[in-house]
Specification:
This protein is an all-alpha fold. Helix content is 44%, strand content 0%. It contains 7 helices and no strands. Helix 1 crosses helix 3 and helix 3 packs across helix 7.
Length: 252
Amino acid sequence: MMKLATYAALVGSAAAFAPAQTGRTVTSVSETKADLEALAAKANPVVKFFDPLNLAEASFWGTSNEATIGFLRESEVKHGRVAMFAFVGYIVHANGITWPWPMTLSGEPFPQVSNAPEAWDAIPEAAKWQIMLFVGFLEAWRESRSGTHYMKGGKIGYFPPFDAKYIPGGALNLYNPFPRKDIAVMTDEQKEKRLVAEINNGRLAMLGIFGFISEGAAEGSVPALKGVISHYDGDVMAPFANSIFPALPGLN
């Protein structure tokens, strides 16, 4: 996941929501480099379009350039959302904030730690698998219940609501969970503005969470955070105590 987030950060300006085009609504899908250039000016009028790896002209896995752009844009939005959760979560754990009830059925309390990686290390392996499987379920739900796929012209960043037909009793709509009428009646212009804001917030969060992790792993690597982020002795690239992959001959 860390490697994917780094990858998404690199392609940030090449993967984003699109402004309106002739014959399309303002929330329609960007399919060309020109679409991305137009959006980049909206997202960051100073930097504008920035694609040093030339990914906006790539064609991954034998697909079209349009499909590749769809994949990159979806990746950025998804990793931006994860980074926003991670950024807030890191601050919560660093300040010792936990739920008031026990963490496990046996009564074990939530760990009191100084940073988020320590909290992850302290929870049982079974809890880690529960989290991973839940994330996998969300990924499968998005891929299978969103109608037209984002690599085939579908809506970027869309997460389908949970249907009572498949989820017993139904569940909250992740975009508008409670639901608010002002969100339900937003104009296309308002939706476009919010989508651009989400991209910018996600990009900033990706930089922010990596700043926290970098400073924790190598003190002084982020001067602005020196003395703010406590040191982490573990390995942020090893989420499980025991690797789920078999050992390779000749490697420790």
